[in-house]
Structure formats: structure tokens, C-alpha cells
């Protein structure tokens, strides 16, 4: 089928223009960009959709978007399709349904050109939000240790070519690599611990910067990256998210918080929190040993083993209370350790890149913290 199909866009004003042409985005690209800009919570079924598109045959619109524009372009397409298939009526649904229909009837070449236009015109703030979401999906893949295996045994594993997210086992403390799914992205390997994300979870994003400043000590709150756009209340947004397991009644269950730290504070926190020297030179960040050796991320590494004595000063009492009630923290204290695996920091080799700090929090206390950060009305507002 060629581009002259009646359901395919043919007129210049309807077709995606070449990247960087200076014109306004096409109507189709504008619709996808609008859905990306408006989203606050990713669809619950997103991991399944991602697994499906990776395994699907070439030729589908979803696959074309994924191959051409990576996760970000595919995510935009998925938001439009989700809106088109949703039972609830809303303004703009007809346009979403019409676009999906046109894409299904169009050629792979047109689908790829539209995906390229979406990526070209995607604002930096939205790119960062999508990148953070993608990272959460990737981190789910780290839960590879069998449930019966000793939770404190750390394994060093080789790169896994599989990129489909799979349900995580019971929370374990493991080290395991991830390979980025997009063929257009550089393969990445980073490590994490303590079951950072869950197979059936809800993710809260767009935390109020004002609320974050009230919750965290000044030093940390001033180090959290901010997003360029405002939230629905017109307030500045902190680069902070929280994820919750769905429908859990296990009192030992935990939730997770992710903080994005500005690049100029990474060396400070690596030393103060983890006792490790991180240095940067000629655009490259690396771990410096006391004997002059250097460990260069490829392209990321994770610091774990947060100094217990630094918890109150670093995060404040509310966060400390939530950390201290997690099974990992209690196990660390029970074994008379001076460090805990409840906090970790992922650092990139790029000097200008931000770092990401992950905290494991007790579910009840974490829910209360989320109510403050995301200005939820009551505990019943927590994702279920």
C-alpha cells in the first residue's frame, strides 16, 4: 500500500515535515505531542504493551514508531491509542480514533516519518519525563533472583539481550544488568537493589516543588532537579516520582521514591552519603580510588550502602521513619551494619548528566509522604 491510500495523509499540510524545517508540527504530530504533554500517570498495562511491541512483527504502526523513535515515540503513539480505545468520552477522543485509523491504513514509511517528527519536536521537559518512566520500566527487569535464594547474596550477571519487562519476584537485594530496548539508544548497564519497582504498580509523577521543599532538608531540596513546565495547579514541579504496588495488603510491602539530583551535587552526595569519591574531567565522570585507580561507568553505575548516620541529616525525619520500617533497613541494623541498602544512587559517565537516587519506603509511611508531595486529599486517594 502506498502513500496515496485514501486513509493516508497525502497533502503537504497533513504529512510530517522534515525534522528542523521550522514549520509548525503537522496535525498528527501535534496530537501525539499534546497527549504526551497532558499525561500524568502512565497506563497500567504499559509494560505489557512494551513487551508486545518488542515481540511483534515489523509493519504495525506501534512497531514502526518503536523502531524509528525508540521508547519515546512509541509511548506517544500508545497514549493516543489508549485514549482512542478508552470507553470514557472526552474532548479530543474522535481525533485520537481518527489518527489511529489513519496510521493503521498508512505505509510504514509514513509511520516512521511521523515518529521522527514527534521526536524532533518533543520538548526537553517531556523527554526527561518519558526517560524517567522508561528507566522505571527497565528497573523492573532487575528482579531476576529466584524467591528462595538468599536475599543478601549479591550476584554479578552478564548482559541480558532480553528487553521485555517481566513480573518481579518477591523483593530481593540483587545486582543485575539492563540493556536498553531501543535500537537507536546506546546499550546501558546499571545496577540496583531491593526490588525498586513492582509488576503491578501505580506511578505518581509531577510532585510539587513547594511540597518537596517542605518535606526535605534545604540542602537536598535545593539539589532536586526541576521540570520546566508547571503542574495542574500552576506550581513548579520537582523531578520526583513514587511507585506503589497495586492492591497489596502485606504490611511489609514497600513503595519506592526516585529523586533526580542536579549534576553539580553528585560528587558531594557520593562522598557524604556513600563515602566514595566521584570526579569528573573532560566531560567524563568516574569513580576515583584512593590509590589513583579510576572506575569509569559503562555508561552508568550504582552506589549503594548508604551511611546510616547520615540518614536524618540527608532526608529529614519523615523519610527516615519510612526507611527504618522497611525489611531491608531492619535486616541491615539487625546484622549490625553501618550502611543500608535502602538508598542507592545511579550515576552516569556523562559529566553533565543528572543522577538518580532511589529510596525504599515502608508502604504506610510512604503513602502519607505521597499525600504531602502530590497534594492528595486523603489516604483513599493513594493509587489502588
Written account of the structure:
It is a single chain. By secondary structure, the chain is α+β, with helices and mostly antiparallel strands. It folds into two domains: 1-148, no CATH class; 189-381, no CATH class. 37% of the residues lie in helices and 17% in strands. The protein has 13 helices and twelve strands. A hairpin with an 8-residue loop joins strand 5 and strand 6. Helix 1 packs across helix 5 (108-121) and helix 3 (61-85) packs antiparallel against helix 4 (93-105).
Helices and strands in order, then pairings?
Blueprint: H1 27-38, H2 46-55, H3 61-85, H4 93-105, H5 108-121, H6 124-140, E1 201-204, E2 207-208, H7 209-215, H8 218-221, E3 226-230, E4 236-238, E5 240-245, E6 254-261, H9 266-274, E7 277-281, E8 284-288, E9 294-295, E10 300-307, H10 311-315, H11 317-324, H12 327-334, E11 339-348, E12 355-362, H13 363-373
Antiparallel strand pairs: 1-5, 2-4, 3-4, 5-6, 6-12, 7-8, 8-9, 10-11, 11-12
Amino acid at each position: 500500500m502506498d502513500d496515496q491510500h485514501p486513509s493516508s495523509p497525502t497533502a503537504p499540510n497533513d504529512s510530517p515535515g522534515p525534522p528542523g524545517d521550522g514549520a509548525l508540527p503537522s496535525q498528527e504530530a501535534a496530537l501525539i505531542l499534546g497527549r504526551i504533554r497532558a499525561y500524568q500517570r502512565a497506563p497500567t498495562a504499559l509494560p505489557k504493551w512494551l513487551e508486545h511491541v518488542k515481540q511483534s512483527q515489523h509493519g504495525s504502526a506501534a512497531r514502526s514508531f518503536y523502531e524509528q523513535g525508540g521508547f519515546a515515540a512509541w509511548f506517544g503513539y500508545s497514549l493516543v491509542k489508549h485514549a482512542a480505545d478508552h470507553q470514557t468520552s472526552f474532548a479530543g477522543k474522535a481525533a485520537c480514533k481518527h489518527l489511529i485509523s489513519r496510521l493503521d491504513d498508512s505505509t510504514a514509511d509514513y509511520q516512521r516519518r511521523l515518529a521522527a517528527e514527534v521526536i524532533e519536536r518533543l520538548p526537553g521537559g517531556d523527554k526527561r519525563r518519558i526517560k524517567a518512566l522508561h528507566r522505571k520500566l527497565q528497573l523492573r527487569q532487575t528482579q531476576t533472583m529466584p524467591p528462595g535464594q538468599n536475599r543478601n547474596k549479591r550476584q554479578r550477571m552478564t548482559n541480558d539481550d532480553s528487553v521485555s519487562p517481566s513480573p518481579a519476584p518477591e523483593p530481593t537485594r540483587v545486582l543485575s544488568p539492563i540493556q536498553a530496548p531501543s535500537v537507536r539508544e546506546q546499550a546501558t548497564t546499571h545496577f540496583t537493589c531491593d526490588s525498586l519497582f513492582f509488576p503491578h504498580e501505580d506511578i505518581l509523577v509531577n510532585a510539587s516543588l513547594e511540597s518537596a521543599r517542605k518535606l526535605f532538608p534545604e540542602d537536598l531540596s535545593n539539589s532536586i532537579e526541576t521540570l520546566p513546565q508547571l503542574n495542574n495547579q500552576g506550581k513548579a514541579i520537582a523531578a520526583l516520582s513514587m511507585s506503589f504496588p497495586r492492591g497489596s495488603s502485606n504490611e511489609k510491602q514497600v513503595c519506592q521514591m526516585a529523586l533526580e539530583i542536579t549534576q553539580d551535587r553528585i560528587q558531594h552526595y557520593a562522598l557524604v552519603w556513600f563515602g566514595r569519591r566521584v570526579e569528573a574531567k573532560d566531560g567524563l565522570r568516574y569513580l576515583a580510588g584512593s590509590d589513583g585507580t579510576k572506575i569509569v561507568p559503562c555508561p552508568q553505575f550504582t552506589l549503594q550502602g548508604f551511611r546510616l548516620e547520615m540518614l536524618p541529616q540527608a532526608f529529614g525525619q519523615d523519610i527516615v521513619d519510612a526507611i527504618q520500617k522497611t525489611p531491608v533497613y531492619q535486616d541491615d541494623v539487625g546484622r549490625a551494619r553501618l550502611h543500608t541498602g535502602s538508598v542507592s544512587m545511579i550515576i552516569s559517565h556523562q559529566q553533565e548528566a543528572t543522577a538518580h537516587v532511589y529510596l525504599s519506603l515502608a508502604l504506610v509511611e510512604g503513602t502519607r509522604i505521597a499525600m504531602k508531595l502530590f497534594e492528595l486529599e486523603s489516604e483513599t486517594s493513594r493509587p489502588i
